[in-house]
Amino acid sequence: MPIKDKLESIPDKPGCYFFKNNNNVIYIGKAISLKKRVNSYFHIPPSASPKLQALMAELTDIDWKITNSEIEALLLESQLIKQYQPKYNKRAKDDKSFPYIHITDEPFPRIFIKRLIKNADRKPGKYFGPFTDVKALRQTLRFILKTFPAANCSKPVDKQKKFCLKYQYHLCSAPCVKKITKKEYNNRIDLICKLLSGQRESLLKELYIDMEAASENLDFERAADIRDQISALEKSIRNVTITSSEPNFDIIS
Fold first, then answer.
1. Considering the entire predicted model, what is its pTM?
2. Within this chain, do residues 212 and 107 fall inside the same structural domain, yes or no?
3. I need a labelling partner for 13 at 20 to 30 A (CA). Which of 71, 164, 166, 248 fits?
């Protein structure tokens, strides 16, 4: 299908878009509105950057992948860039340091947004990213901490002597004052890692099992908390829908 016809069929929904050259993915981006974002590339001024002009000169095909929210689009974009290593995304990465989500390697891991300028900046722990939209990433991290409260403080948990305001705002579970056990806390970190690595089905399945177990043990408060986590995830992080005009589209959920 000609690109002109594809532009008319792109949905006005959040998701990720793929610019291709002879079936090779050369750029991946995300958007709140796929239709508006992709169409904007075809109205660039003559003064546009040389890299953008070079990208458009190589473009021979477009595809896209619908998501159910901007948060999901952000996480999906990071995973797809890592999977496909598109040439123009790699060039952008060389030009500036994109942020990652860093989960520290500690008895009570903390979670941060961190920029990696060079290898020396990489501290022990797990890194998820890179992400291209810092503002959306901050919103996503807040969503994660609201759903799975975890430490986000500057000092290691064992150096803290009292809980902070983040606990009162339900953004932290206050392991520093033993409001949560080490086992429960690290289970929560595992859930966050599953969310960030795209294991949505596994994450939701585990939460449903935990909710049923809590109900059977008459721990209704915990069951209600897990129910709220499931509800938040199902509203913001759902399985994505593949939409493509070509039957051999090679993106796999």
1. 0.65
2. yes
3. 248
